[in-house]
Amino acid sequence: MRSKFAKSLHTAASAAMLAGLLLSGTGIPALASDVVDVWKSPSCGCCTGWVKHMQASGFEVKTHDIEDVDPVKRANGVPEPLHSCHTATIGGYVLEGHVPAADVRRLLAERPKATGLSVPGMPADAPGMDMNMGEPYQVILFGQPGGKPAVYANH
Questions:
Q1: pLDDT value at residue 103
Q2: What CATH superfamily classification does 31-154 receive?
């Protein structure tokens, strides 16, 4: 038999989970710790589109508009072949380019030993690009100890 306190705590936790599900719009609770820092060009429309995608998926996003993002990429260990237009960080990981929010959530849940995820270049159908051309693209996991970049997700 559960105590009044345990029942109250369970009810509060259930309500918080439901609110998170409703607010995130993704079926996955938005967490206060899900803050994405994004470094991007102030004039890049697709970067702004990706920021909106992440916000719509329940992430809090802080943007840093800078003219040259390359020093941020180098400082965060993004290999040149994996470069894209913007670089972000969250939970100790680097996100390079138009990584879908669902893949970021998976990364944060699985916590692999890696630097982060990249969507190299600017694929037409990636979040923020949104050209709906039916062109597949890959999300790459990079920076694993002793490992080469590997496909993390196919879209």
A1: 98
A2: Glutaredoxin (3.40.30.10)
Give the model confidence (pLDDT) of 84-137 as tens digits.
Answer: 999 999 999 999 999 999 999 999 999 999 999 999 999 999 999 999 999 999
Which residue ranges make up each domain of the chain?
Answer: 1-30, 31-154
Question: What is the biggest distance separating any 2 CA atoms in the chain, rounded to whole angstroms?
Answer: 61
Give the Cα separation of 11 and 88 in Å (integer).
36
Strands (E), 60-154: 60-65, 87-90, 93-97, 116-119, 138-142, 150-154
Amino acid 147: pLDDT = 84
Pairing status of strand 87-90 against strand 116-119: unpaired
